[in-house]
Amino acid sequence: MANKLIALAFTLIILFAVLTAIIGVHFRTSRNKLGIAKPEQKLASGRLTLKRVGPNQVVVDNGIIQVTFSSPEGLITGIKYKGFDNVLNNKIKNRGYWDVMWYELGQEQLIDLLEGVKFNVINQTSEHVEISFSRAWKISQRGSLVPLNVDKRGVSGIYMYAVLEKLKGWPTVDMDQTRIVFKLNTKFDFMAISDQRQKIMPSEIDRDITNKRANPLAYKEAVRLVNPQNRIFKGQVDDKYMYSMENKDNKVHGWISSDQRVGFWMITPSDEFRVCGPLKQELTSHVGPTTLSMFTSLHYAGKDMNTTYTSMEPWKKVYGPVFVYLNSASSTNLLWTDAKRQMVEEVHSWPYDFVKSVDYPLHQQRGTVKGQFFVMDRYISKSKLFGKFAFVGLAVPGEAGSWQTENKGYQFWTTADRMGIFTITNVRPGSYNLYAWVSGHIGDYKYERDITITPGREIDVGAILYEPPRIGATLWEIGKPDRTAAEFYIPDPDPTLSTKLYLNNSYQPQDRFRQYGLWDRYTALYPRNDLVYIVGVSDYKKDWFYPHVTRNAGNGTYQATTWQIVFSLKAVIKTGNYTFRMALAAATTANLSVRINEPKSKPIFLIGLIGQDNAIARHGIHGLYNLYDINVGGNLLRGLHYGDTNQCFDDGYRFKDTNECFVTGADRCVCKPWLGTPSWLSSSPVKKLKVLKFGEITNYKDDMDKQSDLINHFVQTMPNLEEVVLYYDTPFDSDLEIVSNGFQQLEKVASTRCKIQVVSDNISFTATVHSSSSSSTSGLVFFKNTFPILSSPTSCLSFRQKKQLPHHVSDLDLRLLSEYPLPHEIFVSKTLVRLKLGEGHDVAFSADVEDVFLPKLKILDIDSVVFEEEGVGFARLLSGCPVLEELVLTNMGWENWEFCSVSVTTLKRLTIFLDDFDENPMSVAFDTPSLEYLEYSDNIAREYPKVNFSSLVEAHIGLRLSEDQSADADFSEEDGYFSEEYEEEEKEMVGNATNFLFGLCNVEILYLSAKTLEVFTFCCEATPVFNNLIQLTIESNDESGWDSLPALLPNCPNLETLIFKGLVHKRTDGCGNMCLCKPPKNPSCLSSSAVKVLKIILSVDIDDEGMEMEQIMHFLEKMPRLEQLVVYFNISYNPSVFDLSKKLQSIPRIASPKCNFQVISPNLSLSSTLPSTLSKIWSAPPNEEYSWFLKALK
């Protein structure tokens, strides 16, 4: 082992293609959402170079960015960019580096910079350079170098990743922290970590305690600035932990040089290599200026994380790649916006295809897990609840909740949609457990089976059900179970210890907790007596202090505090048991005890010393989550309080009655007797039970689940019962749905020995439960009423004569006269291949339809169907169509739903058309990885949480702004956003369709309506790059502008055919600098266009002012690669046709002298190679009026 090689390889991979794409976005203007280069922009040289500079330096250069490495150590010692000779710090070993904080048992903590001792060139071409810095670990180096195999790599821009490996038999070691550090040039003075958390920052000198520029505070990281160089910081507190962020939100952060207008950004496209799940908090950027990429640390968790790697434990992990991005623009706002745009691109590119390590699986080598998450809490609802926005993830196998302290493997997390539907993509091969938790419900979920991912495999776990821990009904509750203390009272800071960034932040009031010293505010509010909370009177938002802390007694001492919860019970069951449930969001050396009534009595619960997350001191609102159940005997109850603690955050408290009745909790009921008392029903001789008014036997007359549970209780408890007869006395129109639900529930409670009969005089809807002669299992037989249904000629069916759908039907058009529920038989057909529902009538799809399975259905057309309860049934309908290939949705009305998801992995064609109602859908998601064709016409949704169009070939997009959004957009234009003097300003966003538009990036053929161009302009944070796009059609009218086109066209590098349906747009006669028509200052984006064929469709004459002609001439003058121009007129032998032809011949200068053109009307076609003479080549028959139009789109 002494001579074993540790592959400490710091490999830089420079991909020229990647770098070129990056450089193309360094200089952006506001008018086109950071989409076009400025005139002074310097382009990449076209060749990537690698050279040795003396014995100790290696330089990689592409003409824009120059990166220098120390050799053979592999430290990044210089990054030359724009006006910076070096964007990094002056100290050569304090610039850009990896480090690992480690120690062996009983030894002091050390930091290893992972420096190499040998340099190698692995590969070098004009587009790709791969270099390596490595070292060999010897047993003699034990105690000085961390015992790891290390392979560090990077790509220009700069991408960086490392492969760390510990072999079996190597010394036991603790590694508490792994990270990348960049110490920047002091000219970087503005820090941004989110839209709201950004500001000019103090300098490292301002934190100097020895020179009395700052005063120390309770711990070394926090100082109060008393004599800063910039007086605006005087009296403020600075602490790097103020800028921490949860992993799920920590995607991009960094620094800006206000002087040089250059940004330096750390972008993390994936969390798979991070530790402890999506809520783990980590450092970002802080005073230095310093930018970090944190992979492992004890922050906000402590040693509850197992960071010990034993001698007999082999381990290997890939950290990264992460991406350091540099950009340049005229303002901090533009630089931040561009950094976010680049982050979105990196996220969409994950996993990267350039990584060469065998330890990094590419996209096709990874797998997918999907399903739907439900919650069943019978004390909230008898029906399953959607796991709305649940966190669902894969992590190393362990106990439920173990993911929050797991740090040695990989984790893959996603957020379910409003219906609990989730998809976890790009999962590395391996064995995992599936974990979940959802806000509003306590506890953790773990799927009962292991998940094994193999390359290319998709695993559908189907519907999974979480039952939160319940012992009884909740009597009272403080707070809400969301794993943070954010809902409780957060005080104002001490005025002498505030940080202005988090003071009265109206954009993000939840950041109030990030102020320093809030733990001492408890002493100011409760100087002598501790907190008393009265259930039913107090408000936890105002009266419950967010951390339970000790009282500052002065002289550096603190006293334990005792908080009281005062409540009353109408009837205490002295012989029964109650449960006090306590959820802690964080704890630091806390010793929490619970007592009943008497402060000096013996605790009924003593938690012991817990917690090392230090979340309170580090300005966190949570650390590690812990849940405790405390049994309380009824004989102890008069009131409740607890106390004796150090520090902890409370997530919530519940007090539960373990002995409640089915309805009221009374202690004298046959329904569910109290604990330990036998039911009187168990000795009952009754053989026949009749319920005369079934539907009114409980206070929950509209909840058939509860009523069926009660009948089930009778059947299961009464040993001699032979027959149950339930009589309905309800009108058909009002209670059909209740009756239907009752039958579904009764099917579940049927027993082997009891016959159940359901009778109603008013409707032909009866059921009988009987014992089968050949089986011990009872069956439930339904005789259902008929529905008023019209059948289409293709189906030849009438449900008036049939109790079920005939087996031979494969094609069905179903129309209903009015809002009746659809018959259930339709949705369990084994033969249907095509189904059309609605056709303009308001057909109702009940939310209670659960069993949907159409195994052969390939085409589904839904027109004006009303899906109840915000589209619950829509998700169930789609999930029951395993081979669906084509879906048409017309006037769905989902603008009133909280969420809509089209999630069908087999779908190939999708058409969505919704009328122009003045509403924006709340949330629309698409998970259609096989989709090839899309038509989508609707108002933009308020959010697109998931968009998966990975196979999309052709898309016709008709998105539009609502009236309110259009008014806001018009106002921003009138306010000067589009005048030339405001060209550097950023456009005001009136909506956000960024995620949807980026989801279209793989498309090859794209049609954009005129209204969609406005969506690009006002509702897209950055312009997507369409690398595969070869044909683009733009619809134009005089109500919509072309402001987004100068950014869009350069982002279509392989575009071959450009089609305009009309040339007149909102500012044709005055677009000036904000349009691709004729920009007077900046170079036209057309000059770099790859378009070879330009087609223009004109449905009217060229106007008298000749604007269309002027525009066509501008295209010819600016598009250097144009080979063909085709102009289509929807008129016959009009002088405009010949006028245009003559003018085209007389153009003095064109960018592509070999461009051929055609002018076509319904019965005439003229063609020529400019500037030659015209020739008549084609004449269409007069009766083929629109054949020219069809030809135009081919």
From TrEMBL:
Q: Does the keyword Protease apply?
A: no
The answer to whether UniProt assigns keyword Zinc to this entry is no
Q: Where in the cell is it found?
A: Secreted
Tell me which EC number(s) this protein carries.
4.2.2.23
- What's a BP term from Gene Ontology annotated to this protein? carbohydrate metabolic process
Name the InterPro entries on file.
Carb-bd-like_fold, FBD, Gal_mutarotase_sf_dom, Galactose-bd-like_sf, GH-type_carb-bd, LRR_dom_sf, LRR_FXL15/At3g58940/PEG3-like, Polysacch_Lyase_4
Top-tier EC class: lyase
- PANTHER family tied to this protein: RHAMNOGALACTURONAN ENDOLYASE, RHAMNOGALACTURONATE LYASE FAMILY PROTEIN
Task: Quote the protein name from its UniProt record.
Answer: rhamnogalacturonan endolyase
* Native source organism of the sequence: Brassica napus
